[in-house]
Amino acid sequence: MVATVRLGTDDNVNAVDFERVSFTYPDSDSPVLDEATLSLPEGAFVLVTGATGAGKSTFIRAVNGLVPHFSGGEFSGRVTIHSRSTLDFAPRALADLVAFVPQDPAAAFVVDRVEDEIAYSLENLGVDRAVMRRRVEETLDALNVESLRDRSVRTLSGGEQQRVAIAAALAPGPRVLLLDEPTSQLDPQGAEDVLAALQRLVHDIGITVVLAEHRLERVAGFVDLAVGLRRGEAPVTGEPAEVLDAVDSGPPVTRLGRLVGWRPPPLTVREARRMAHGMHLTAPPQLEVASPGRPLLAARRLRAGYGHAQVLDGVDVHLAEGEIVALMGRNGAGKTTLLRCLAGLHRPESGHVEIDSGHPVPGRNVALCPQRPESVLFAETVAGEVAATLKAVGGPGTVNDSMDALDIAHLHDRHPRDLSAGQRLLVALAAIGAVDAPVLLLDEPTRGLDRDSKTRLVGFLRGWAQRGRGVMLATHDVELAAEVATRVVMIASGEVIAEGEPGHVLGDSPVFAPQMGRVFGAGWLTPEQVARSMMVTSDARDDGRARTTS
Q1: In this structure, are 301 and 267 located in the same domain?
Q2: What's the start-to-end Cα distance of the chain, in Å?
């Protein structure tokens, strides 16, 4: 089936045209893109959305020719970017038109110093030195990374790397900017700042921004067009609300709208507030969790850093059986360093870590899933990854047990490097989880995950805790913390500044509050929680009317 969609009028200039584009990866039996025909107008802010593995990264890479020039595989049709065909022009010959920031921003870095990295592409394009200096300064300011200009890219946090990678892509002044999950490692405020800067470029300069993103609560209010992908089907293209409804996706406020029958469901907090006006809810329910069991982990007065840079400054944290603790805070606050200290992978300058009455032993009493899950994947198949862990530690489970827990059995014979970022994360978690350690640590575990995959992750973490183990995860995903955490620890500048149950720590935060809290007030965490309260309130109101009538 061919879906032909033209956005805007015939007088508009198109930035990108797909004409009957189909693509199948090497060694794959089914196409990722199938007869895709669509046009994206110049000066549009476009969201590419779809389930994990639906082809979002493939679509993005087809725009600048990385698919098929570097991917191989079977490609048919034509992609044109500002009248240049990607079949006739290699990606390097499109560098003056289009810039690309991949899912792993560190993979795009060429030089060590931040300012030099931002200037690198300008030098390659032969930009005059005076113009180059001005553009570098403007880009540093636009992405708020001026304070990082003399830092080594190797010393940056994941979120800082993401901002620098976007700055480096923007510096040459491309007409089309492609971004693959640009907010996945950014804290909420940082994500909003980056998206606002991109929106200004769209509105004021006319740049076309095309981004693939799963954190829809962050981007829904910024984009004006959407492309919905389902593997092997023609794209759905149009207004964001229509496309998200067609692919059964959307932020938490949209999920609430579907649960309670709002039509059309809202996309933003502002729209949800309008639709909820005049509604009365019961008091926010108390978080129902079992009392923590025996202590599993205790870290006292941790001080740690890299070279002369102090990252942690006297941090105390603890974890008990049955707990799921979310570490939160802005980029560079020290969350990853703390996890590495707890896992025994980074030696603190002072302080003490105790796990299960002993020192942390990676792969024995503690297991860490890192920000870049591909760094722990080395086997030829998904099943081989899990089998290698079981063989190394003599774990009690089986390969099928570990894969079934995350519903990835269908990936059994796939090569991990051929999977999407979200699928690789689930594979890494299955392999690391096979260690069956009492303490499981995760660093940004929802990167690349759609709603269904995140639901499987939540079930996995809850199951882990219910078996008398503990989970601690560092995350910028406010909605994940609201849904699964039993306790939140907030870190700033290497210190713990707040700690408690999610409704208390996140509820009234102007930055970290979940969408339900922003709509209905502190204490409300998830759409399902709000929907249940609406039903109870409605039933009570109907029952009161019935008694009055009788």
Answers
A1: no
A2: 59
- Taking 3-state DSSP, the helix, strand and coil percentages for the chain, each rounded to the nearest 5, stand at 40, 25, 40
- How would DSSP label each residue in 429-450? HHHHHTT--SEEEEESTTTT--
Q: For residues 247 and 28, give the distance between their C-alpha atoms in angstroms, rounded to a whole number.
A: 24
| CATH number of the domain where residue 333 is located | 3.40.50.300
Residue 131 within a domain = yes
Question: Phi then psi for 298, rounded to 5 degrees?
Answer: -145, 125
In the block, tokens 């079977």 appear at 74
Same-domain check for residues 213 and 143: yes
Question: Could you give the strand order of the β-sheet that contains 74-81, starting from the edge strand earlier in sequence?
Answer: 3-5, 33-41, 14-24, 74-81, 84-85
Residues 219, 151 share a domain: yes
Residue 10 lies in a domain: yes
- Residue 356 sits at the vertex; the CA angle it makes with 375 and 310, to the nearest 5 degrees, is 55
Q: Is there a domain that residue 63 lies in?
A: yes
- Closest C-alpha among 34, 35, 37 to residue 14: 37
Query: Do 329 and 413 sit in the same domain of this protein?
Result: yes
Task: Give the count of domains, the chain.
Answer: 2
**Do 401 and 362 sit in the same domain of this protein?**
yes
CA neighbor of 76 nearest in space, from 24, 40, 28? 24
> Do residues 277 and 319 lie in contact, with contact meaning Cβ atoms separated by under 8 Å?
no
What burial class does residue 229 get, using C-beta atoms within 10 Å of its C-beta: 0-12 exposed, 13-18 middle, 19+ buried?
buried
Q: From first to last of its 550 residues, what are the pLDDT tens digits of the chain?
A: 334 344 443 445 899 999 999 999 987 888 999 999 999 999 999 999 999 889 999 999 999 999 999 999 999 999 999 999 999 999 999 988 999 999 888 888 999 999 999 999 899 889 999 999 999 999 999 888 999 999 999 888 888 898 899 999 999 999 999 999 999 888 999 899 889 989 998 999 899 999 999 999 999 999 999 999 998 788 999 999 999 999 989 999 999 999 999 988 999 999 999 999 888 788 887 766 667 789 999 999 999 998 888 999 999 999 999 999 999 999 989 999 999 999 999 999 999 999 988 999 999 999 999 988 888 999 999 999 999 988 888 767 788 888 999 999 999 999 998 888 889 999 999 999 999 899 999 999 998 899 999 999 999 999 999 999 999 999 999 999 999 999 999 999 999 999 999 999 998 788 999 999 999 998 899 999 999 888 766 554 555 454 444 4
Residue 349 and residue 481 in one domain: yes
Closest CA to 407 of 422, 387, 394, 391: 422
Whether residues 476 and 327 share a domain: the answer is yes
Phi-psi domain of 143 (left: phi exceeds 0; alpha: psi -120 through 50; beta: other)? alpha
Same domain, 266 and 315: no
Q: Is residue 303 in a domain? A: yes
Q: Has this prediction a pTM greater than 0.85?
A: yes
Helix ranges (H only) for 22-94 are 56-63, 66-69
Integer Cα distance of 502 and 520 in angstroms: 15
Residue 301's domain spans which residues?
296-524
